[in-house]
Amino acid sequence: MINSAIREQFPILNQNINGHPLVYLDSAATSQKPLRVIEAVKAYYELDNANVHRGVHTLGSRATDAYEGAREKLAKFLNARSTKEIIFTRGTTTALNLVASSYGAANVGEGDEIVITQMEHHSNFIPWQQLAKKTGATLKFLPLQQDGTVTLEDAEKTITPKTKIVAIAYVSNVMGVTHPVKELAAIAHRNGAVIVVDGAQSTPHIKVDVQDLDCDFYALSGHKMLAPTGIGALYGKKALLEAMEPVEFGGEMIDDVGLYDSTWKELPWRFEGGTPIIAGAVGLGAAVDFLQEVGLDNIHQHEMKLAAYAEARLAEIEGLSVYGPKGRQVGVVTFNLGDVHPHDVATVLDAEGIAIRAGHHCCQPLMRWLQVSSTARASFYLYNTEQDVDALVNALIKAKEYFAYELG
Question: For residue 34, what is the DSSP state?
């Protein structure tokens, strides 16, 4: 179960902001880090700092063991078949661009189709948009229902034998929608397409089994799942990765370099040119350990409880619009307070020590679909409580009163 002992392991939360206890409700942007992760990175730099895969000295061996050990932990965490299917990247953005630039460039041509949704984060939107422009492929969009969900009936109509790639977020960073990835993968495969899953918002919050989902590629970011910034990963089915060409060349990823041609290392190292993000991987490994000990099922149940409580409390505020489905499955609540600009709302909340996100959330096409310029977003994680939700609601009521006075 999630309890106060969990929260105590996040030192950043033990501070005041503008004279108020910090209430951090922006974990969808980046999560806070537990002591275990902070100490793992510190210990690496204090005791093991060296380059990996190169030196035969003790520090090099220990660094390599820690780096590759993190890959093994992540492979088990995602239930990948092999560590060869785990490519370390800078994050979700880099992972998705790798798929588009390598697999996409080799397998998509004029007349083919790429299927996405209008609610994708720009990281899972622009790479496919640009690939379509370069290749002459058609970019198609799965229709969105009023609450932001997609239906399998629409998917059956939109995904055709011309479709080469289906790219979709498992969980929306704005609407709190969880998409039926497993069922969409089956539809894609029946039509000869591959499915690429943006797992940035799902991996920290729900148990992910890439074999059960039968996704072809799955991208994630460490900093959203308690790990440091600058580290993430791409899961890919081994057969697909083996057929792909690297998009970044240099040290570490080569097998043999001749004057006029070169060959590449085996998986996964052919896609990890240059000195890797070693400390980040060490931190990611520690974060995986922490999440497994707490339990993804426990985290998910905790967040669902908070989301339900937040929906009920926010409904008490007249004039506040909440976007997305009722009974959401993740702890993301996006809203607007009447005609007040979300940045103004966020500024008032910050004065009360409450951190939320305001803006277009890297989802401008979705904002246009919602017919708004921007929204405010509160996102919860394992260290949040119902008291945090109460603080949010009280601050929103205060913001409403303030702007009613100012505008009145």
Answer: -
Mean pLDDT across 124-130: 98
Q: Cα–Cα distance between 146 and 364 in angstroms, integer? A: 17
The two tokens of residue 376 are 């405010």
> Given 29, 35, 186, 362, which residue is catalytic?
362
Residues 224 and 102 in one domain: yes
Does 185 lie in the same domain as 247?
yes
Could you confirm whether 362 is annotated as catalytic? yes
Last residue of a domain, one of 293, 313, 337: 293
The CA distances from residue 261 to 240, 243, 292, 305, in Å, are 23, 18, 44, 57
362 contacts 122 by C-beta, under 8 angstroms? yes
122 with 218, same domain? yes
Name the residue range of residue 157's domain.
50-293
Q: Are 313 and 279 part of one and the same domain?
A: no
The per-residue pLDDT for 1 is 64
Question: pLDDT digits over 146-198, tens only?
Answer: 999 999 999 999 999 999 999 999 999 999 899 999 999 999 999 999 999 99
Domain boundary among 239, 267, 293: 293
Are 95 and 213 members of one domain?
yes
- Tell me the C-alpha distance between 129 and 288, whole Å: 33
Percent of residues in the chain assigned helix, strand, coil, to nearest 5: 45, 15, 40
What is the pLDDT, as a whole number, of residue 407?
A: 46
For residue 33, being part of any structural domain is answered with no
Q: Is residue 32 part of a domain?
A: no
Residues 313 and 283 in one domain: no
CB contact set of 406 (below 8 Å; sequence gap of 6+): none
The count of other CB atoms within 10 Å of the CB of residue 289 is: 17
7-10, Cβ contacts within 8 angstroms, sequence gap of 24 or more: 7/383, 7/385, 9/34, 9/35, 9/36, 10/34, 10/35, 10/383
Cβ neighbors of 51 (< 8 A, separation 6 or more) are 60, 63, 275, 278
> Is residue 276 situated within a structural domain?
yes
Among 4-8, 92-96, 310-314, 328-332, the least confident range: 328-332
Give the model's confidence band at 408: pLDDT under 50 very low, under 70 low, under 90 confident, else very high.
very low
Residue 57 main-chain phi, psi, to 5 deg: -75, 170
What is the total count of domains within the chain? 2
Of 355, 382, 368, whose CA–CA distance to 22 is shortest? 355
Distance from C-alpha of 21 to C-alpha of 391, rounded to nearest angstrom: 10
